Every structure is written in structure tokens, then in C-alpha cells.
Amino acid sequence: MALSCALATYPAPSSFSRRCRTLRRRSAAPRALSCDFSAYPAHSFVPEVAEAVDSLYSEFREVDNLVAHNSTRVLKAFQNARVGSHHFGGCTGYGHDEGGGREALDNLFAEIVGAESAIVRSQFFSGTHAITCALFAFLRPGDELLAVAGAPYDTLEEVIGIRNSSQTGSLKDFGIAYREVPLAEDGGLDWDALATAVRPQTKCALIQRSCGYSWRQSLSVLDIQRAIEIIKRQNLDCMIMVDNCYGEFVERSEPPMVGADLIAGSLIKNPGGTIAPCGGYVAGRKIWVEAAAGRLSAPGLGVECGSTSGDIMRAFFQGIFLAPQMVGEAIKGSLLVAEVMASKGYKVQPLPRHPRHDTVQAVQLGSRDLLISFCEAVQRCSPIGSFIKPTAGFTPGYASEVIFADGTFINGSTSEMSCDGPLREPFTVFCQGGTHWTQWAFVLGEVLRSIEKKTDERSSPYARVNGV
User: Fold this and answer.
1) Which segments cross the bilayer (predicted)?
2) What residue ranges of the chain have pLDDT lower than 70?
3) How far apart are the first and last CA of the chain?
4) CA-CA-CA-CA torsion sign (76, 77, 82, 86)
5) CB hemisphere CA count around 140 (13 angstroms)
6) What is the CATH number of domain 47-67+324-457?
7) Rounded to two decimals, what is the model's pTM?
8) Are 403 and 423 in contact (CB under 8 A)?
9) Domain boundaries, the chain
């Protein structure tokens, strides 16, 4: 049943063919095994993709080494936390008697990311929710929040209060000021501006690791370490909060290992390993993790309460264990997307074969039609909802129309293969995830066909005459 994929990629050895013929002669029911290779295409990938795959051998091997390193430290954390099957049970009501699973999960996650403490919960329903709890752990009326990597991701704008603030409980509503340090011309951090940006009232510096919906470089852990050192030299009491979404397991270390006070993210992104059905995390210094937990639940309850239904705990443990491998496949997919789309003349960020600091690959398509066509192609090649046509629309938390392609087993999971983008200039699509890099290899063939078709339509005599 899984034979066709392998046969399409690798030549069938003559001994295997002879074995198939022998089995057919011996079998009492010949229809039980078919070795009709003509039923499958001679080549799995379109030529542009096949050429890119061949050229990326050394980069893929480097990713495999990263996966091996991170998988080793994850396994060690599981062993140190003495995880057993008794930790997989759910709990009801207040969740007081949940069998120690929460504590084991928190402890192993804290060790993995190099933090004093962590809270990993199904009650975090998005990365934005977890980040918000972390920000409210630090900030009080009269304090200032400083974003050091330019404008934050769209869904944080209403949290901060820089868009649609109308007494809904934003930071602005609580009297918390906000400033940001614009990015440098090259899309990286403006180190000169950052060196004088921190004020005495700056209580928290927000570092967004991934590019979000901006055309900028994602930050390496070394970049984050340098930024922390610069910030702390100006104000030792300024706390460092890292939006770690899409960055987990992409490098060999995590921000708490270089001085971040808190990090936060979503379990339906990298650390859930495509298995976790929901949830998020906050990790870092114990005093601030407990403060974030008080925001999630209530002061005094902190990490001690919260029911977990069904088999979610097992999925959390298993997802974290698989996460380094799944992230590795996503990185390979992003390398492939960059290589193929750049070869077709499109601007990409990161550039082909450049180091990866998150699992997001941005492609600047330049038109609304091409962005929609790209997302439609991804949806057609998805395992779930392949028959659905993505439609751009307004989504809670976003400033403009957004189109999503996410035919995923977990609703909204960006650790599985997905892409999305805001319907605004310069019409950039952001690709992420993938349980195996070959998903993107197949998708890219469909993307190239869709873009070629759309380009032909726009250049037809009818289109030129009618201004289409």
C-alpha cells in the first residue's frame, strides 16, 4: 500500500521485479499483489522540484544532524522527568487529582527549553493567548512595553491596544504605554537604535523571534542573546519576553538558555509535533511563570488547577517527543520552497540555503490573484478538505483580509503543512509546517502549474483588451 511512493522515487531493482513475478506465479489469488509499475508516474516531482531536491542534499543532511541533537535532549528530559503511562490520564472538574501528569509535563518542557519552570496547558487556546498571559505577568499600570523587532504580529495589536482599543482589556486600557524600535533597512534589528531605546519605565522588552507577517529576517538565538545583553545594560530591571512561535527546535538552543525571562508559544505549532490537538505554553523564570499562570487561571490558583479531558495528556507528551523530527521536516520543506520559487524569479525570505531560525518561508508573489492561487494549490494537495476552495476574509485578530490554506488534521495547525497571507501589498504568502518535506515537493508542482495558468490568463488577448 505504501509501495507506490517508494517506487516512484527510486528505480526498482531487478531482483525485486523477479521476486514480484515469482509471487504472482505462486499466489493463489494474483489480484492480491500488483506490480504494475505503469500505473505510477515515472517521476514523482516536476523537473524544477526534482532538480532542487538533488541540489539540497547537503542542507538536508545538516537538518538531520540538528534533529538528532534536539531529539537527544528531548529524550533525556523525558527520562529525567520519569514519564510513565500513568501520566497520560485525563482529569475532570477542578483537576486536583490528575495523577502528576501536569507536573511531569511542565518539568520536562522546562528542561528542554532551559528554563526554571514551565506551564503547558490545553487551556491556552493560541500562541497569542499564551503571549498575552506572559505580558500581563510582567506589566502593571504606568509601565512601558518596548517591542524591539518592529511591529508585532497582527493578533497582538489589539492585545497591546494599538488597534481597536475600546475598553476590552488591552494593555493600553490598563495604562501601559507602548513603543517599538523599527527594523533596520536590511530587515534585521536596528542595533544602534536599540542601544539607546530602553528607558527607566520600560518594564518589558518584547522580542518576536519569527517574521510574523512582516518582510524581515527571523531572529537567531544569538541575535536574541545580543539583544538581551544590550537591553539589560540599559535597565537591569527590564524583563525580556520572547514570542517563540515557530522557533522551537529550529536551533540547538532556546531563548531561556541565553537570558530570556519568559518565552511563550502554541502547541499546534512546532512543539506539538503535529500531534497536540490544542494548547500552549509559557516557560522561563519561576516567579514569572507563576504570574502568567495566575493570569490564565486566577491569582492563588496558578498551576494547581485545570481539568484535562480525554487522551490529551498522551498527545502532549507524544507530540513534544516527535517535535524535533517534525520541525526538521518543516525546515526541509522551507528550504525546498525557497529554492524552487527563487528559481522562478520570486523574492523569498529567508534566501535559498540560508540558515533557518524559524519554520516560516515567505514568498513575495506581487498580486492578489497569485496569492490566492498559491493557497488554493496548497489546499488541493492537503489530506483534509482538498475539495475546499480557500476564500479570503476577515478573521478575528487580523487587521486586513487574510487567506488560509490548512487542510490539516488539527484545525489551524501550522505544524502540519499550511500557508496563509494577508491580502495587502506586496501580497506575500507565508508557508510553514509539513509532516514530511515531500508534501511540499508535491505541492510545489501544483503551485507552479497554477501560477503558470494564472499568468497565461492575465496575458491573454481578452485580458489585455478588457483590462483584466
Assistant:
1) none
2) 1-43, 165-166, 458-468
3) 46
4) negative
5) 3
6) 3.90.1150.60
7) 0.88
8) yes
9) 47-67+324-457, 76-321
